[in-house]
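Retro notes, structure queue

What went well: the backlog is down to a handful. What didn't: a couple of records were mislabeled last round, so from now on we paste the full input next to the output in the thread. Example, using GH92 family glycosyl hydrolase from Belliella marina:
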Amino acid sequence: MYIHATAQDFHVEELDPVDWVNPLIGTDSKPSFSNGNVYPAVALPWGMNFWTPQTGKMGNGWAYTYSSDKIRGFKQTHQPSPWMNDYGQFSIMPITGQLKIEESERASWFSHKAEIVKPYYYSVYLADYDVTTELTPTERAASFRFTFPQTDSAYVVLDAFDNGSYIKIIPEERKIIGYTTKNSGGVPDNFKNFFVIEFDKDFSMNQTFSSGKLQKTLETEADHVVAVVGFKTQKGEQVNARVASSFISFVQAETNLQEIGQNDFDQIKEKGKDIWNKELGRVKINGGTPDQFRTFYSNLYRTLLFPRKFYEIDEQGQVIHYSPYNGEVLPGYMFTDTGFWDTFRSLFPFLNLMYPSLSAKMQEGLVNAYKESGWLPEWASPGLRNVMIGNNSASVVADAYLKLNGQNQADYDIETLYEALIHGANNEGPLTAVGRAGVNYYNDLGYVPYDVGIKENAARTLEYAYNDFTIYQLAKALKKPEKEVELYKKRSQNYRNLFDPETNLMRGKLEDGNFMSPFNPFKWGDAFTEGNSWHYTWSVFHDIQGLIDLMGGREEFVKQLDTVFTLPPIFDESYYRGVIHEIREMQVANMGQYAHGNQPIQHMIYLYNYANEPWKAQYWARETMDKMYLPTPDGYCGDEDNGQTSAWYVFSALGFYPVSPATDEYILGSPLFKNVQLELENGKTISIHADNNNKGNRYVKSLKLNGENHNKNFIKHDALMNGMRLEFEMDDVPNKKRGVNPEDLPYSLSNQ
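Corresponding output:
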């Protein structure tokens, strides 16, 4: 799906927003090198079920890779990333001729030339079988359409996968039901994904298989079961199937199937297209190149996929969910498949800005997660997973409340969420990635020591300090006791304990108060998480002025920022005993030590705004957008990570970015398009204009906000929500007189 147009003949009004989306961007990836590490998610925004063509073997996290030439099936997936792998998965595969059950044997050659990939629709020609397969989803169901040749041996194989599955064929109802238990962790013992598939044509044969062996029954339960139904078809005959699943029961799966109702395939397809156009169309862009349009809307598509809905609507129309924490079926919302270490930075702030009512439901889901597990998840897929560091649920909860409450959207149990934050901030969890590992050291010493057996200790300290700031902000808003408010304000300054004045960098510290030695700032991992000291030194989101002061002033601070880009991309991988893909992606990018392919440093570009040199933020924001994001299968510069890397691009293309969630400021950069219109949920509009914008004019010469000169390097959330007109005058040389006065600088706790 690549729309050919030149800048001269291009007219945006000729295409819907969804027509610009290419779900194949980022699929040219592998474990050793990520260009996104995504699959083409055929789904509705935040849908419970995604679908994808499956090129990888069963259980392979790289379910679809662009370089593959065979498709093994069409898989229902809930995979958030290849590293987390999948759950609730099964596949459907049409074949003709000789009956083939095993996935490698039944796999068919295909070509991208005979493949159509859209967010709401997928089609491909399976060359080995002369069959065209089409699919189009709803939130919890999907329609399939198979176009067969003339044959007496047309089949559909339903593979329920291994590690425990069940299938029953009901010929008189043209139906197959079953369940899969295959998962990658984070589920209770009673976990099942129940599915139902109905066809519109009588079966000419039906068989079940267990571990590849034919069974003499239409009902089979074993480690790995497969069902096959057959048809006699005329040339070009279309066989339709409706499929849905549920984490609750077979009855609920049948209820979820009613999302399709009496609609035929094309009607479901058009409804899906309309839904995507509605959500993508909330951001209207103009005045850019075709490639910029493709890149922008493809990134916006990825921004609107996670966290996915993990709730269902019962026969009475009530919201219910299977709890991935205690295995019970309970009322209320639940969302999952996101890691806050990644997504607190810009994904959730984007939802708070553009989709506040949905964000409020996500907060309700977090209330339920806490009640059902005793903890807030830091990485949920679908339940608690022991991955990454930090206590960044604090940021997600605080930023949502502080922004939604001002719009009267925070009608959920914030007191229970505050209780959850306090609990998580003062206790180690059942998993290292839940609560705070090393919390007693952190609370007593003000840091997690390097030499007490807790990995990635410096990174934990820095993130805990920022998390404490977000709790401080929320505590103030909720009018908590002054002593409690001041405690978290004080703890938010703990980042200072790891600052090494000799190197002007953050450094691991021993329990006795001495810095760890020897110190190699290029060493990945060890005291840091998927990065080195050059990346994590900037993780003081809430108090950049405090960091500036530690470094000796703004000139030294800017010098250190500049050095990130001028250093060679050298690294020490000894902690990992090999070069991890994040290291390699930094090395090849030719941007020095700037590692945009991973999250810890993604905000760093915008920090020039705090130090009187905003034009450098403008330069590097545009440089990163132009260089690191492309509308091609290798279009990302590392893991896309559940919308975070995409949300960075979306915000940056608008011209501002939320450096410190749980504050009310967005920090200015360089807008990418000549005109953007954001349609807010409250009916207000944000209009962004940069009429003389182009590739060469990346610097902000002047800015007017609602007709008044605006020299500040930030804009306020409430002002945006009230509707705003931003008029940028762009130039090819920096304006070094704008945004350099004390009142122009963004918020820092030290300046409060």
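Agreed that this is the format going forward. Reviewer comment attached to the example: The CA atoms of residues 542 and 660 lie 6 Å apart.
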